[in-house]
Write a structure and sequence with these properties.
It is globular and about 40 Å long. By secondary structure, it is mostly beta strands. Strands 2, 4, 5, 6, 9, 10 and 11 form a seven-stranded mixed sheet that branches. 0% of the residues lie in helices and 49% in strands.
Length: 124
């Protein structure tokens, strides 16, 4: 019954910033580990970032470390992905995911609930 809906994708230029949001509904948000994944055409879905239930621990994929920041607002049931210094290589469909787990999940197969995705396109 968990439902996730991403928003905030768009077409930007290299070096721009973008903020994605993920609205969570259907269950108690604060007991779900949240993650952001992305998938480009012809490539596997890969971890972008993940955040613990309380938001006190985070994990980032190597390609986005230092540029992206994951956060969550448990009072409003929203997870965010702040993206800075965007590169064309960041172009992909970005998915929000949730899992009823205690620890941060790092693999797409660990997550039980997914949003529909939002397209992020970074031009040269």
């Amino acid at each position: 019954q968990v439902q996730l809906e991403e928003a905030g994708g768009g077409l930007v230029q290299t070096g721009d910033s973008l903020r994605l949001s993920c609205a969570f509904s259907g269950r108690t948000f604060s007991i779900y580990v949240m993650g952001w994944f992305r998938q480009a055409p012809g490539k596997e879905r890969e971890l972008v970032a993940a955040i613990s239930r309380a938001g006190d621990r985070t994990y980032y994929g190597d390609l986005v470390k230092g540029r992206f920041t994951i956060s969550r607002d448990n009072a409003n049931n929203i997870a965010y992905l702040h993206m800075n210094s965007l590169k064309p290589e960041d172009t992909a469909v970005y998915y929000c995911a949730a899992d009823n787990a205690v620890f941060i999940r790092e693999h797409a197969t660990d997550y039980d609930y997914w949003g529909q995705g939002t397209q992020v396109t970074v031009s040269s």
